[in-house]
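Example 3.2
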Amino acid sequence: MSSNHLLIDQRLIVTMKSIFVSEKHMEETLNHQLHHLLLDIDLIYLGINKNILSKHGMRRVRYYTMRHLYLSPQLSLGELSHLTLVDRASLSRMVHTMEKDGLIDREADEVDRRLFKLSLTKDGESLFKRVQADMNADIQSRFEGLSDETKHRLLELNLELKHVLSEHAQAEVGLE
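Structure, written as tokens:
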């Protein structure tokens, strides 16, 4: 087990103790406990991903931008903004930097010349594949302590949770 995984495991133990031992937390509803547990898991997961991405000099938003462009080439800035949950102005600056770095191409839309379609360059695609290979290798080790049965249960429960939260987001804040 790497020192990063050990550190994250230690953080998880401290986090779990604070969740279940805190008197204040005991007064919270089950929904609050679930909310805080998900936030803690998210922070741990983001920390793991941050370590991998930093090896490639990359931050999370840049990774997700490249991931979306890899999976769906020819996205508009508006579509990419919607997918990454980054406002257009911030995303536009980042895309401009990535274009200067030779990672993204920007082509005028054939129908509406005011719009641009974004795609990864060969260098951008190559970088994304290297990062994704490291990510995939780490993903395999993240869950090796869980049985296949547990993984299937977690997948099923998390898909249900994703559905419920997506419906809430659509109803409350107009997200898809």
